[in-house]
Design brief:
Layout lengths: L2 E7 L6 H14 L4 E7 L6 H7 L3 E4 L5 H11 L4 E4 L12 H8 L4 E5 H4 L8 H19 L11 E4 H7 L8 H11 L4 E5 L15 H14 L2 H25 L2 E3 L2 E3 L1 H30 L7 H9 L2 H28 L7 H31 L4
Parallel strand pairs: 1-2, 1-4, 2-3, 5-7
Antiparallel strand pairs: 4-6, 5-6, 8-9
Length: 379
């Protein structure tokens, strides 16, 4: 069998039949050996009967969620290629040939692009069209370098082999983002075709919830990109903290009549600590995700275990810790020279604040080295 057309369904009795007739017409007119699958997610409005009456394969998916329905339908698909599309009659199932042609050319994932194909009046809510989709698609391109203009188009095609290699996990609306991200991470061939979006034919509100599902998409993009979630913010915080702390250690700074002194040094030192923790969490999350199969490995990741091991981490941590101890001893000697009397805070804090910062980072580096070794035991 060449093609399986999968329709997720949850109480779509108003529009399911017209979608099934269009999909069947497409297969018949183009003489394609295929099937139409309805992945039902617990409908109670007669969608089951409509699916069977129109010759579709009915797959019952008890676990609720858009992603769950598509996972169930795609796993059951017998075709070499799969095209998924919503059951609300917003996409034209008689015009699937551009998708199938791209799949035949060897592409693993063929995305629809509604912004290129055209969005008819009242087909997409204002917030989705001008804020949600553009922003999330931009972040997806930025985080993962994927040349796709519409991350959330509900009409897309993929090979069964690519679907199995993606090993998709999410159960909700973020399934749409996971598919694109996983395809990119696994270096699959991705392309897009213009797709027209029409107003759906339902009288009830859609299942999609703007803010809840938008957050779930954003959350997924961040979790699957530890570089943007942890590494880049951590580097910025550490750089800013180190530079400003270095200047404040040498003396107070006056900008536009505002004096920045040791009180500011306390906060800039905290930025260094926070930045170090951000970078550490980037390393932890990357190692955990790769060793547990959530992200694909890479040559750089394999090489990192050759250079960054427990012993080197311990040596670095001890050096930082000893630097903090040295500054602490110097501060105590300065106090001793005053017969352990009153100290000038603006002087002594320029020694003790960096000392505490180095002591903390040194201890964290030692502990994190052991923890990283535990995470990397599989290596």
């Amino acid at each position: 069998m060449e093609l399986s057309i999968v329709l997720p369904c949850l109480n779509e009795a108003e529009t399911l039949e017209v979608c099934l007739k269009k999909a069947t017409k497409f297969l018949t007119e183009n003489k394609i050996d295929g099937e139409v699958i309805v992945a039902d997610n617990g409908s109670t409005d007669g969608s089951h009967e409509i699916a069977l009456r129109n010759g579709a394969r009915l797959i019952h998916v008890p676990e609720k969620g858009y992603g769950s329905a598509l996972l169930g339908g795609s796993n059951a698909a017998e075709g070499k290629y799969i095209i998924m599309g919503d059951s609300d009659d917003s996409y034209d199932f008689t015009n699937l040939m551009p998708y199938l042609e791209k799949l035949r050319e060897g592409y693993d994932l063929v995305m629809g692009n509604r912004f290129k194909g055209g969005i008819m009046k009242d087909a997409m809510p204002f917030l989705h069209r001008y804020l949600g989709n553009p922003v999330l698609s931009f972040l997806g391109r930025l985080f993962f370098k994927i040349p796709i203009g519409d991350f959330h188009c509900g009409l897309r095609g993929y090979s069964k082999d690519a679907f199995l290699r993606m090993d998709l996990k999410t159960k909700g609306m973020e399934f749409a983002s996971e598919m694109v991200v996983k395809a990119s991470l696994f270096k699959m061939k991705i392309t897009e075709v213009p797709t027209i979006l029409r107003p759906d034919g339902r009288s009830r509100p859609p299942h999609l919830r703007t803010w809840r599902d938008g957050w779930r998409h954003l959350r997924f993009l961040l979790i699957y990109s530890p570089r943007w979630l942890f590494l880049y913010p951590g580097i910025l915080l550490m750089l800013f903290g180190v530079i400003t702390s270095g200047l404040l250690i040498m003396g107070k700074i006056t900008l536009a009549g505002v004096v920045f002194d040791v009180h500011t040094l306390l906060y800039t030192s905290a930025l260094v600590l926070i930045g170090f923790q951000f970078i550490s969490f980037f390393v932890f999350s990357k190692v955990y995700a790769i060793t547990n199969g959530l992200l694909p490995s890479s040559p750089n990741f394999e090489k990192s275990f050759e250079y960054f091991n427990l012993e080197r981490g311990l040596i670095l941590g001890v050096i930082i810790l000893l630097s903090g101890i040295a500054l602490t001893v110097n501060a105590v000697l300065s106090w001793k020279n005053l017969n352990f009397g009153d100290l000038d805070p603006t002087i002594i804090l320029r020694q003790t604040i960096p000392a505490i910062m180095l002591l903390t980072i040194g201890v964290q580096a030692i502990l994190y080295s052991f923890f990283l070794s535990v995470l990397g035991l599989k290596k």
